[in-house]
Design a protein that fits this description.
28% of the residues lie in helices and 30% in strands. It has 119 residues and is an alpha+beta fold. A six-stranded mixed beta sheet has the order 3-2-1-6-5-4, sandwiched between helices. Strand 5 and strand 6 form a beta hairpin. The longest helix has 23 residues. The N terminus is likely disordered.
Length: 119
């Protein structure tokens, strides 16, 4: 597996499972999913709109022999302080629902960042 950047000295970045485990150790305990109602935990107790979500970081993993292993891990914090991760495929294996949601979050974050720079 490969991730962006150098991973030789960071053992927890060598695979999706170890990266998810590290994020959980760092307090990102929820496992998020995207539905038509928005981002939610698997218990579906609350839904978050793109305006209520911040992507803290992301890690992309590429399968050496199987393109089906191409995944991306989003590290997320919501407006109410809920922290967790969202896993999706990318390229041909990406979920359209997740992709649309992430694009909406990124566009909002760009606007917020740009408005702070212009201030």
């Amino acid at each position: 597996m490969e991730t962006r950047g150098q991973t030789e000295n960071i053992p927890w970045m060598k695979g999706l499972a170890s990266c998810v485990n590290k994020m959980k150790e760092d307090g990102y305990k929820e496992d998020f999913q995207v539905s038509k109602k928005g981002l939610t935990t698997f218990s579906e107790s609350k839904y978050y709109s793109p305006e209520e979500v911040k992507i803290v970081n992301f890690y992309r993993f590429e399968g050496v022999s199987d393109p089906g292993d191409n995944t991306i891990l989003y590290v997320i914090e919501t407006a109410d302080g809920t922290k967790g991760t969202l896993v999706d495929g990318y390229g041909a294996y990406a979920s359209q629902e997740v992709s649309k949601f992430i694009v909406a979050v990124e566009e909002i974050q760009k606007k917020i960042h740009t408005s702070k720079v212009d201030a």
